[in-house]
Design a protein that fits this description.
The protein is mainly α and about 160 residues long. The protein has one domain (about 20-155). Helices cover about 65% and strands about 0% of the residues. The chain contains 9 helices and no strands. It has helices at about 25-35, 35-45, 50-55, 60-70, 70-85, 90-95, 100-120, 125-145, 145-155. Helix 5 runs antiparallel to helix 7 (about 100-120). The longest helix has 21 residues, at about 100-120.
């Protein structure tokens, strides 16, 4: 990357390996992709009613299970993020370079599950489907146009020399 790519960033924007910290919008996109897992964890930690929270958010349990399936790619991306360090294996480095594509595929797959849920199984309303579609379009456009995320993908942590 050229040095002027980093001109707008302060030292607080860099991590311990002198890599630019991950673009904040990516965390929100991952939260969106992993929403069924987050709701599942919140439901499991509720001591009074383990299923009530899931049923409140997902009145049709089939849609909950479909969203768990669509979140698997998001879980893989979180795994790659957690393994992203100087001592990482070669497969982590390769997968990191494909992270933009993986995020877009995860979003499109999640939308496909929503479309199937709405039109084939009648699990969600058209209104929610339109909101879902607009969120996916916004997220994909953020992934494609984010200069910071492009820098993130180009970098990979390297061990720094000891002082």
């Amino acid at each position: 990357m050229s040095t002027n790519s980093y001109a707008n960033y302060l030292p607080k924007h860099f991590d311990n390996f002198d890599c630019l910290k991950l673009a904040p919008g990516i965390y929100f996109i991952l939260l969106f992709i992993l929403r069924a897992y987050i709701i599942w964890i919140m439901s499991v930690t509720n001591m009074r009613d383990h299923v009530g929270f899931i049923q409140w958010i997902y009145p049709q349990t089939a849609l909950f299970y479909l969203n768990l399936v669509s979140g698997v790619i998001g879980l893989f991306i979180v795994l790659i993020l957690s393994l992203r360090r100087p001592t990482a294996s070669a497969w982590v480095r390769i997968c990191w370079k494909k992270c933009k594509i993986l995020l877009i595929v995860a979003l499109v797959f999640d939308l496909l599950i929503g479309v199937l849920g709405a039109f084939i199984w009648h699990l969600q309303s058209i209104t929610w489907l339109l909101v879902h579609c607009s969120l996916v379009i916004a997220a994909v456009s953020y992934i494609v146009t984010s200069k910071r995320f492009t820098i993130n993908i180009a970098e990979f942590p390297e061990a720094l020399p000891e002082k």
